[in-house]
Amino acid sequence: ARPSAVKLIRQAALHSDAEKREMLEQRFQREAKATAQLRSPNTVELYDFGITDDGDFYYVMEYLNGVDLQSLVRQYGPLPPARAGYLLAQACASLGEAHQAGLVHRDSKPDNLFACQLGTQYDFLKLLDFGIVGSTAAADQTDASKGWIKGTPSSISPEAARGEQATFESDIYSLGCVAYWLLTGRHVFEAKSIMAMLLKHVSEEPKPASEIRPDVPTQLDQLVLQCLAKNPADRPSNALDLAETMAS
Q: Is 107 part of the annotated catalytic residue set?
């Protein structure tokens, strides 16, 4: 009775080992149920989920009219700082509710942030894909690899790049990477291989966005660098507080 988007994760793309597949199914059910409880208007609404007779995982979600932030910047260039801050504050609102529910997104990246028209509102941001099943796409600098990392190389936190457990602060780091993309049209780090990029996230300090784009306001510039701190304890710890700071 309403437009929907259906996402299928084919059985062929899932692990062939029976025990590991059962673990995937359990995680899928657990995290999908948790995600379905989220009520932030900035989180994509999950209508239904399950496993088909063929063994495919599926989600039924609200259909969105708009564009993801990766495509937006690629097509039109970096955003005005005020617009970037407006979109990022909405992403923080979504993450804040998820964190309160004990959920770590694990893959906050421009592709998973969607600017859409909702009713009469424009630039209404929706956070997609709560990292329920790892991607099996071919690995490159903007796609999650098949390997041990959980996340996307261009926006992965240092601790996740080391193979450690992702935390709420890991989501904040990834959001800092999104902010950098929106403001500069560049990733925080560029590298010729995934491993080289992971090493940069772990050990190399990022350049301020203002070095690439001088009109980035000083407060916003510093806030993005705080989100990109190597030590999780040095990053903003509360996404809802960060939403207020970003909005201001």
A: yes
